[in-house]
Amino acid sequence: SVGECVFPQVGVTAQKTMRLLPASGRAATQKVVVGDQDGVVTCFGIKKGEAVPVFKTLPGKKIARLELGGALNTPQEKIFVATGSEVRGFTKRGKQFLSFETNLTESIKAMHISGADLFLCASYIYNHYCDCKDQHYYLSGDKINDVLCLPVDKVNCITPVLACQDRVLRVLQGSDLLYEVEVPGPPTVLALHNGNGGDSGEEIVYGTSDGKLGLIQITGSKPMPKWEIGNEKKRGGILCIDSFDILGDGVKELLVGRDDGVLEIYNFESADDPVLRYDHALSESIASIQGGCVGKDGYNEILASTYSGWLTGLTTEPVHREDGSGAELKLSQEMQSKISSLRNELEHLQMKVLQEREKYQQSSQSSTAVSSVPAFSVNDKFTLNKDDASYSLILEVQTAIDNVLVQSDVPIDLLDVDKNSAVVSFSSCDSEPNSNFLLATYRCQANTTRLELKIRSIEGQYGTLQAYVTPRIQPKTCQVHQYQIKPLSLHQRTHSIDHDRPMNTLMLKGQFSFAEIHSWVVFCLPEVPEKTPAGETITFYFQNTFLGTQLESTYRKGEGCFKSDNISTISILKDVLSKEATKRKINLNISYDINEESVRHTLKLIHPKLEYQQLLAKKVHLIDALRELQVHEGNVDFLLPKYRSILEEADQLLEEYKRQPAHLERLYGMITDLFIDKFKFKGTNVKTKVPLLLEILDGCDQDGLIAFFEAA
Length: 712
Hints:
alpha+beta, Immunoglobulin-like, globular
């Protein structure tokens, strides 16, 4: 059985900022050390169910990472924190012994410590120090999310591994790239398998921002993937990983914390692939996870720290004792006294809040009043989901959310989210003078600190989505967060494309620099690093998550080449790039090569989706009539099997239809754009023929549709 217990709350915490110190001396329990965004390092132990402080540092800059270190093959009980561009070291008693100001111009984002070796990463920069002396440096092609080094005592050499946003693990040797490992999503966290890299010391577990998990063996010459777990349950991205034998079977389990608050335990039943044994949902994203013995000797726990600084423990200690009624009574008395003291503390806090509120009201009405706006922290994530070609906007606030107003200056669809309990209301908006296409308010239930929204954009329509976040704090205050919806917003970076498809080509030539054309590509497409790539030329591959079409972009100073099997993608790029160049008064020489076969190919990709959505819409429209028949006739045995199956699946059909509003409209829009774009490149305006095209679409005949495109 697993019971839940809550420890003290600290400030807002970043990813990987909580660790358990190794047990020392006679004490069998471990101390907890956590760093927060107020810059405070807190260390405490648990005695008789109560937190006992060991030390607490003074506030400072935000703590981005907290790691344990020490001499190799000794207990790792020295505490290191990364704050700004500085690394500080503390003993387990809280005495500061190190203050190392690095030469990094940006704040440290990731850190790993191995003996005297310190590995640090800012956004794109990796630095290796030994005894605080600069050793190696590497500039990554995309943002670095985490860093790790294989255990030196096992592999006998220093092998750092960088987890980079472009879905790649980069394995280094000194200051050089040894090789790259492609992974199925942007890796957010790395951990040594079993805490030590497995038997070989070369095994690394990674977690991705789209919720996938995998194990790769990093050998001296090439990567060897061992296993990979998808995200069939559509859970959140992975923020933290640990290995610990919580089940007591002699094999370490894999502990995983996700950004939707789900904590998972995987164990290795078959000794090869992990199997999900247990999961538990918390209300906030899990920033750090650790396994150990904290609360009571002999009972292991999983400790998780969440975004707003709550520390939660899942313990193996039995919640109910079963050794007679006396022990049961003793436990309840112990609990009652604890509950009573908590009640008193709560009443005291409530009184204090009322007094302070009254004091504030009085001072705010005086002639010399200066109202202070309370600061609050918002953790946000705006990502494209490959599975359903929608964007997830996740907003997490350190205090309860009152409401969120969402405004967009481009047409977008709001999709249903199962986990969302907020009440949404739409306001009518005037799209003409203000370019206002969406105004929606989400009113949250009490104690909601995390809100997830889903939207689908239309390619070619680009602008800004704004979220106005108002928490339940006094005086009322609001933060605005902006998210760019790009011209090719449904495209996602991929490692490779199918070069055998019929491709259309767009060529640009002009007096522009490498940095200028790169900034235009960043403006047009998601998942492109903002920093201009090293070297003289670069190639990026993309896939359209809605249709499955592809794009290859290769460019250098004065020249750009874009290839896609979808004419509409080329058309959008042509319009946007021309506009961006005109803004900068740069003359572009634009040429294109259109492949007629690509139109037929794209229609064949769209048609199965079109057919499915049309059938779904027809079935949904029949449900009410069929249900009425069922009520009148008493049974439905006389109906044809296909109608009986519609009634049986009615709830699932309605659910699917509700989840994908305007899906059919979007497909009609894409086919219409494809038709107009095909002839636009020939210099023909075919907008008058669009009503005829829509009639053919209603008939849903693939051959007829292709024939219409070719005959027009």
